[in-house]
Amino acid sequence: MASPTAMKPFSTEETQRILHHLQQPAVFMNMTCDWPALHWTAEQLSVCLSDKLIRFRLGRREETNTPLFETQCSYVEASLVHFLSWTCGQSGPDVGPFSEFSYSEYWAYADYKYIAMLFQDQPSMFEDVRWPDFGFEGRDGRESTLWIGTEGANTPCHQDSYGCNLVLQVQGRKQWYLFPPDDASKLYPTRIPYEESSVFSQVDVLRPDPRKFPDFQKARVHTVTLQPGQVLFVPRHWWHYVESVDPITVSINSWIELEADDVARVSEAVTKAVVCAMKGCPSDDNRDDWLNPTEEGVTSHNENMQYLNLAIRACAQRQTDLHCSTLTLDPRDSRPAKRDSGGQIRKPCVWKRDPAPFTIPFGPHLISVCCQRRDSTETRDMTPKDLEVKPSRKWAGEPQEDEQRTEPASAVRLHRGKDECSSGLTQCVACDRADGMSENSSEDCEESRDSIITTNDLLDCLVHPDVIATVTGLLLARHTRSHRTTAAS
């Protein structure tokens, strides 16, 4: 009988070539059958980690029309033993700090946990994760993160600024809703709450509010239910919302940093400087909980400017090195896209140029995650089976040909946009003074007051992706001119 390794459908070289050419999400099948990490169930991990405390994020199980951001969640420090006892319906000392939360009312998520930190006393565990099978030599659990959650645990819809993503499902199933980068304006991006390298969507993608976010109905969602043993490839800048659909789920992922991230890191440094400068100054409308709990704290303007200058110099040096090289770097030399467990930024992956024609071998071992088109009334009731990879179909309330389509809105959207009062604030004030006010006039005035530009509105415009891209280009051009002037003198 052939060994599990021999049965793998793609060699490391073939997998690297596939990843280099993939422009859409795809699921790799039968590539991890010999990975010891497939035995990392929550029960097994609880034995390995014993009474080690892990931070869990808890959210209430309720349906709203707004995303539940991490700033709005509760947090506890508990062991996996406590967690498992809680999911079994136990109470009292057996569940530790989970005793304050009803399992029927809350979900829990130990998300984004660095395996290098969790198992720093058990380094042999790192070898259970075998990313070299995907062509990334030397990459294992040290460059990966662990996710453990209950049914309903979710990550708000967001876009990662850096790299691409490989996700192994270990236990249970997760539903993924992915949107292409070109749909960014339809997802109403915001940087509040602020987290370096993450752009959040203001839309609850499962229960969207069509009045506040009319363009979302045109977004092209790609859906898949990821099952144990499968590996999902998430291309650079694809938006995604992820939710656990089984009682307990375990996932392992690794972010692969790319050459294009050099410019993105400059953009993130610009964004951080602007956000911290504006949100660090309290005012009447500027007292919200704006910093994501994943951030260690508010950095000073001096620190942010130092980071910006370092990012610009590193990007310029990288571009110079590439112009002087023949691009023959080992494509498997890559490190995590986000900061590693020590807070360090690592070297990006550079794939060799592949001039030969290549057809991606979609089939039983590599399945494309297709665009789903559904009626809005069906979307919120979809089951995991509905989200298995299928041919395209209607989705998310997309208008029929005979329906009136909503005209595209402005590319730059306000953070807390509401329907504007057509007459504005001036007419609203005049309305208060006029005789014979209509029965709806008080509501109109209330809407007008809500349309006042806030700090967050201004901030969302200043850090809009199009604006940040322009500023990044100007700064890099300025650095190039300055460098040439200095060299000439």
TrEMBL record:
The keyword Cytoplasm applies. Its main location: cytoplasm. It comes from the Eukaryota. Residues 101-271 form the JmjC domain. Pfam families: Cupin_8 (PF13621). Coiled coil: none annotated. Residues 377-391 have a biased composition (Basic and acidic residues). InterPro entries: Cupin_8 (IPR041667), JmjC_dom (IPR003347). GO terms for cellular component: cytoplasm. SMART domains: JmjC. Residues 377-418 are annotated as: Disordered. Keywords: Cytoplasm. It is found in: Cytoplasm. May play a role in cellular stress response. This is JmjC domain-containing protein. It comes from Solea senegalensis (Senegalese sole).
